[in-house]
Amino acid sequence: MTTLLVLHGPNLNLLGTREPEIYGALTLADINQKVEKAASAYDVEIYSIQSNHEGALIDALQEAATKADGVIFNPAGYTHTSVALRDTIAAIDIPVVEVHLSNVYAREEFRHMSLLSAVCAGKISGFGWMSYKLGLDALVELLNRQDAESAKK
Ligand code: DQA
To answer: Is 100 a catalytic residue?
Structure first.
C-alpha cells in the first residue's frame, strides 16, 4: 500500500483563526480529514505531522524517506528561508510536492521566492485546502507513472 506523509510547517497549527481572509476558515484537523478522505479513494494511506520547528520538519522528511513513498509539504514561512530543508529534500529519494493555501505570487514579493521549489517534484499554490488535494492527485499520478516505468525495465 502506498503511504504518504502530509507535512505542515510553522503556524499552520493556527489555521481556522490565523488570518482567515488569506488562509480560510478550516482548521488543520479539517484539512487533514479532507486529505485523508481523498486518499482513501486512491487506497493510499496518509499520516500527518505539523511542526513549528525546522529541525523537526527535517527529521520528519528523513524518516519519511524510510517509510513513505512521497510527501505533500506545506513548508509555510520556511519556504522562503530554509537552505536546510532544501538540502533535506534534495537528499531524500522520494518525491516531495510543495503546496501552499494562498497564491504566494499574489502576495508580498518575499513570498514569490521559494528555496525549495527547485528540488520538489512540483508546486501547487492558491487553492486553499484544495492545494493539498491537488498535491495528492499529482503525487499519486507521479508514483503510478514511476511504477509503470520501472515495470518496463
Ligand atoms: C503559506 C504561504 C507562506 O508564505 C506563509 O509563510 C505561510 C503559509 C500558504 O500555505 O499559503 O505560513 O505556505
So the answer is: yes
